[in-house]
Structures are given as C-alpha cells and as structure tokens.
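Wed. Picked up where I left off yesterday with Na/Pi-cotransporter II-related protein. The coffee machine is broken again, so keeping this brief.
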Amino acid sequence: MARRTGFAHVIYNVMTGAMAFFLLGPFTAVFVSGAGAGNSLTALVAFHSFFNAIGVALILPFAKPFARCVEALVPDRGAELTRSLDPRVLGMPEIAVDSAKTAVDKIVRAEVAHLRSCMGASQPSGTDYGWDNIETAVSEARSYLDKIELPSRSDVEISSIKGMYHVLDHLDRLP
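Structure written out below (tokens, as returned):
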C-alpha cells in the first residue's frame, strides 16, 4: 500500500505540475493586472493554492478509476495472507512488527473461516484458503518474526512479537 500511495502521489503531482505550467501565464497576466500587482509572495501563494484546488476538483470525480489504474500499475506481491510481510522494512522494527501484526490477523481470520467451513457452519464472508495455504502462511509469518531485529529497549515490540509467536503456536495446534 505504501508503494501504491507513493506512486499515486507522483502521478497526481506530475498531472497538477503540468497543469500549473500551462496556467502560470494566464494566472500571472490576470494577477499582475489586478490588485495583487507588486506582491510576488502573495501571487505565489495564490497561484499554488489555485492550481492545487483545481487539481483536486479535476481528479476527485475520477478517484475510483484513478485508484484502479494505480492498483493495475502497482500490483500486490505475494500470497494474500502474507502480503504485508515486506522484507524491505525489516530494518525498521516498528513498521516490521506492524506488518507482522497485519499478516497474523489475516491468518487468524483465515483459519477461523477454514474451521467454520470444516464444521459446516455458514461463512459470513471471506474465502476458505484451505489448510495448506494457512499452514504455509503461519510458517512464513514465523520466519518473518525471526528476522526482525529489535534494539534491547524495544519492550513494546518485544511484547508484540512474543504475543504473535504465541498466537501462531496456537494456530499450529488447531486443526
């Protein structure tokens, strides 16, 4: 999601930057001939606010197609249950722990849905990933947790990691 957000931000800024380039001449002609003549700082702030507002107004009606375009250009990587386990954030313990929490939460929900399916209970929503995929996800999550290196003073992260190992141990014992 962070990659998609960054990519969307770049695309939006390129679009509004191109628009600003073409609006600079007409805006300057109107502003210089008007009451703002002589105050270049006010002109700069007004122009920046103007083209940002126009950019938002133009892209807002196309927010969903724009989001779909970004999703197509920057696809998700990896299996759905462990997609958040990004090895590039292992050097940032707080972010890595949050990524692991997201994955463990998805795995827990997937295993509960799988067990409900095995018992013949109705599924409120979601997909039954099957035991093999869940087992693989548990293994990947455990491996990811093993790679997170925490400073000795990271009591909150250490506690979170211990809790996630505990959850994963229980998930291994359920079926």
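Quick read: Residues 2-73 form one domain.
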